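hey can u check if this looks right to u? its 416 residues, i copy pasted from the old doc so theres a chance i mangled smth
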Amino acid sequence: MKKPYLNEIEPNKPAVATFVVHAKEVRQKKTGEPYLSLLLGDRTGDIEAKMWDNVAEVMETFDRDDFVRVKGLIQIYNNRPQFTIHKMQRVDASEIDPTDFFPSSQRDPEEMFAELRELLGRIRNPDLKALADLFLDDPEIASRFKRAPAAKYIHHAYLGGLLEHVLSLVKLSHAVAGHYPAVDLDLLVIGALLHDIGKIYELSYERSFAYTTEGQLLGHIAIGLRMLDQKLAQLPGFPPRLRTLIEHMILSHHGQLEFGSPKVPLFPEALLLHYLDDLDSKMECMRALIENDRQAEGHWTSYSSSLERVVLKKLKYLAEGGEEEPDEQMPGRLASSASSETGGASRASAQPATGAGAASRQSQESPRPAPSTPGSPAKPGQPVPGNPRSGPRAGTDKATLSLFGEKLAEALRRQE
C-alpha cells in the first residue's frame, strides 16, 4: 500500500511520496532557466507542484500520466497548498498499485450493482425488464459498468462513479415518479439505466481519466444508441414505439441543444430524467468541490466553472460561529453579478483561467466580489439583500432618517 497519501502529508514538514502526474508544463524563470509546473495526485486528491532547481536533469525523464517519487514539502501559497519539489525520479508502473492513484467510490461496486439489480427487478413491463436484464447479464458491460467513472472531470469523476450515479438516479426515480400520476416509472427507470451507458466505452481509466478514440469521435450518446440497437436485436418482439421512446430519452437527457442533446425532452419521462440527471450531477459537484477545495483558510470554496459559482463550506462556517469574512476577502460571485458593477462586463472577462484539478478539476481562482455577496454592505440606493422592505432609503444618512421619523410621528398624532 502506498504511503503516505497526499491527505496524510502535513504542511511545512519534509515528505517523500509517490504520485501520478496529471499535468506537466516546463516554464521559464525570469532568468531564462526552466522550472516545472505540475499537477500531482493520488486517490485522496491532487495538488499543484513546482520544481525550481536542477530541473534540466529530470524534465525529460517523465511525462504526463507517469508515476514519480518526489521529495519536498507542502507550503501555503496564495491561500492554497503547493508542493515544492526538491528531488524527483520516475517510478516504473510495475512497482505501483493503480488503485492507490485513482479516486474511487466510497461504496463497494459489487454492493451497488446488486442493489441496482434488485431495483430493476421491480420493473413490471416484461419488455423493459427483458431489456434491462440483457444489459446487466452481459459480462463485459457489467465489468466495465462497475469500474467506469461518470465523467472525466465534472461529476462522479472516480472509479465506480457511473454505477453510483445510475443507482442514485434509479432511487430518485422511485422517490419522485409517484408524485406525478402520468409518469411511467418503468420507462423512467430504464431511461436512468441507459442514458449514460455509452460512457463505459467513451472513457478510459487505465492510467488517467481520458477519452477513448471512439469516445472522441462519437460521444456517449451515439455509443449508447448503438448498444441499445445491438441488445434490441436479441428481442425481436420488442414494441417499436417503446423503442423510440427509449431512444429519445438517451438523445435528450442533456436537456438542451447547446449542452449536447440532439433533441430536447418531448414527453414527461424524458423531461423528468433530464432534471433528475442534472440534479444528481450538480449535488455531486457541490460535494466534491467542498471536500476537495484547496483554499487553506475561509469558509468559501474557489470558483467552480461547472457550477458557475463559489460554494459555502457550511460545516466550517457553522463551526466558526458564522463570523463574516472581511469584505476584501469575500469570494467572487457569478460573472453576471459582477457585470452589474462594471457596466456589463462579459462573463468571460470576469471568470478566471481554468486548469486541471481533482474529482472536480475546475478553475480555482475567484472572480471579483460583488455587492450581493453575504456580509457586504449595500450601496446607497440599493435594496438590502434578504430585506423586502428595504428600498432606496436603505442607504440614507441618519439626519435624513431622523427628520423623516419626526414627520411620520407628527402625522400619526394628527390622525389620533
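The beta strands are 15-28, 34-42, 45-51, 67-77, 80-91, 203-204, 210-211.
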